[in-house]
Amino acid sequence: MNIAYSFFFPQHDDLKHYARQLGIRHAVTNTEAIAGGLNPYTPEWSYAPLFQRKQDVNSFGMEFSVLEGVRFIDSAKLGLPDRDEAIARFCKLLENLSALGVQTVCYNWMPIWEWFRTRHNVQLPGGATATGFSCHRFWPVVCRRIVEQPGILFEKGGPCCGKVPGTAGHSSR
User: Fold this and answer.
1) pLDDT in tens, 126-166
2) Which residues contact residue 101 at a Cβ distance below 8 angstroms, ignoring those fewer than 6 apart?
3) Rounded distance between C-alpha atoms, residue 112 and residue 126, angstroms
4) Domains in the chain, ordered, with CATH?
5) Section 30-51 average pLDDT
6) Would you say 154 and 142 are in contact if contact means Cβ atoms under 8 Å apart?
7) When comparing pLDDT for 63 and 72, which is higher?
8) Are 37 and 48 in contact (CB under 8 A)?
9) For the chain, what is the HEC assignment?
10) In angstroms, rounded to a whole number, what is the distance separating the alpha carbons of residues 81 and 169?
11) CB atoms < 10 A from the CB of 142, how many?
């Protein structure tokens, strides 16, 4: 197991000094941290901003080991008309990461939010904590906001929406 530190946003950059002092040798970053690394016209799947990020973390004695949070593939996740272009970009990202020696890409297939939790401090046996997800807390919010946009996440009257008060198909029986 390797101990790593995550650098996701510009405000995390100052933490690289502390990570070095703690002996952290591996860095995890995301495409948001890389996006527009050289300029706003350079996409995050291009080699140059990935190389720049690698050089940056290397300068603090760390290896760019993991990339997560690939946001530009939402159209592939949703099956939208430009999905093939998004998949081609993702493939290019994988090629460029491989050329830089980054062997781990953490991705998910949850569109729009990447990952979503309704609770961030669930008590586990032994005193540990974890994140959690509750459909009962999540769907009422999502259904009210998205149910009128068919084809984005689910169709009107889909598997859960008809059971949520205030959404189409709800029965008060």
Assistant:
1) 999 888 777 666 666 555 544 444 444 443 444 444 444 44
2) 54, 63, 64
3) 34
4) 4-106 (3.20.20.150), 119-163 (no CATH)
5) 76
6) no
7) 63
8) yes
9) CCCEEEECCHHHCCHHHHHHHCCCCEEEEEHHHHCCCCCCCCCCCCHHHHHHHHHHHHCCCCEEEEEECCHHHHHHHHCCCCHHHHHHHHHHHHHHHHHCCCCEEECCCCCCCCCCCCEEEEECHHHCEEEECCHHHHHHHHHHHHCCCCCCCCCCCCCCHHHCCCCCCCCCC
10) 29
11) 18
Residue range 105-132: average pLDDT? 79
d(Cα 123, Cα 13) in Å, to the nearest integer? 31
